[in-house]
User: Fold this.
Amino acid sequence: MTRLAWTFLRSARWPRAALLAGFTALATALLLVALTMLLLPSQPAEALFSLVAEPGLRWGTAFATAMLVLPLLLMLNQVVRLGTATRERRLAALRLAGATPAEVRRLGAVEVGFPVTVGAMAGPLVFALLRTLFGGQRVNPAAGMHVVDLTVTPPSDVVATYSILNSTPALIPTSVSPAWWQTVAVVALVAAAGVMTGSLASRHLVASPLGVSRRERRPAPRPWGLLLVGTGLGAMAVAVSGAFGRGQAVMMAGILLVVLGVIALAPWVAFRSGQRAARRTSDPATLIAAGHLVSDPGPAGRAAAAVGAIGIVSGVAAVMEVGVFFYSRFIDPFFVISFALVGGALILVLLVTASTLAVHAAESLVDRRRVLAALVAAGTPVSVLRDALRREAMLTSMPLSVGGVLIGAVVAGVVGVAAADSTGTLAVNLAGLLFVCGQVTVTVGLTWVAIRIAIGAVAPRLLQATAPANLRTE
Amino acid sequence: MTEVILSTRAVEKSFGRTQALRGVSLELARGEVLAVTGPSGGGKSTLLHCLSGILRPEAGEVRYGGQRVDDLAEAPRTRLRRREFGIVLQFGQLVPELTVEQNVALPLLLEGHDRSAARTAARAWLDRLDVGKLAEALPGELSGGEAQRAALARALVTGPQVVFADEPTGALDTVGGEALLDVLLSTTRERGASVVLVTHDNRVAAHADREVVLVDGAFTAAGVRS
Assistant:
């Protein structure tokens, strides 16, 4: 069986294995970065940006860094699904040749587990590379201490010094490193999470020697994610009220629950959005897209799930930016750089998510190539199928994006108003509202553009999928 | 004299070094049912694909209603297939995510019909082919025969002049296959449409007005039956 697994590994398409290893390596490196931030002493012996250097902010920064692993796991989930149809046929053939279901499942796990483990083991190398690029520089600890009273407008020379210290791009500590056992634990954790993602994505894989049967309608997804979102919002409210102390930890738990809730809700959003569109549309492209979403909302929903998280963070950031830029007398460069970092991180996550959607679309084309070729043979223009592909991504992503930014902006707005001891003038309030609306529009617009580009990149595959040769494909 | 609706002259088509069609010439009369038979790999499906404008031959010409089809660009060929031709394949090839009714309505929606008109026409064809009660089912929930009837409804809903059927009974048992053929031939004959029937089954070919046998990409002289 080991020999067979090795043969399959060697015959598998290398881009899939490379993507699995690459994204796992990146996820491991990000977790090591977050861990290193937490290992810093309260007074670090190196120049680091305040988000990392200040003990009060460090936990939040490490938490946000660790959260960047979520879109990578969603991407891994999609990459694992690449070539599912071929794998199903191969495993069915093995079952027909006498392999037991357990043996077949083990083969599937090895196929995913090997590149994922290799990737996790390469994670420390990526971490070292990131540390070289974004690592702090050692300084005299005594010279690194600055106290600025932000309740008064500071003198210009203090502002200049403060600005220089806070504009260091160094984000990853170099003066401390995780112990060997901590590194091993992170590598093992990521490898296990990768294998688990793989097994979850492959859980519908063949159990019968005659292949996978899709005769039954899959049950509609339920909005269980709302429970997580509700619990998360409740935790955040508790953290803001300060009722139980340990506000920062409760707030982080609340944010994590909200983000996980939005990710869990994504298949339900995809299903409802598809169902609604299928009932009303006269447009063939929308009908094909909606039908696919309704019949199998899970993969499409999970592929677009991070869009909801992007929306939430962007909505919160928009409200916080209003607080800093419209209601403060002194614009602290620390906030400017922090918002720029958040914006950069969001764009990176958006790129990963758009790539995830592209991978999902490519897989869906390979899986459905015979039906698509038959549609074109019967007179459906390829342009209609291209539109269907794009609309499928939009029908899932746009509600998540709009919903996410609204949740983020409203929650942050409510918390902000509750915490504020005074309100601004009508003009300032109006300008702030317009600013939030502008950022919401930009977030949704950028998401729209990113998805269009990602699906556009897959379009050449559509021509391959609809080729007449696929009418004969088994 | 019978009007020729579809014709080919010296059509050749290759896939790599394999020559699938070697100078095939053929005429199809309006209302005629033509069976194309022969062994596997003989070029039957390739001929059907060239006749219906799915593939473009490398040499020779294909004409529909006197007009060259093979030199048309992709978009007009696609429109021609949608408006003038109906295509039925071995496994139906319905879109698995759409209901049977949505599948049948799809060609009309592509033609710009509104939703309710397309649904009404689709429902009428499904009723006529005895699968009306399955309109809300998904293709995966149908038997092979039911799926082929639905595929036939999808092929006929636009009122095609020629129906191309590639092994339409290949996945059905004898009784189911006979029933499907009866429906296919009665509905097309009633409308005066022509049928090109690709099959390797002599019992199916016996239903045709004429039979040609394709071996190694060329018609055999002995294989023509009128």
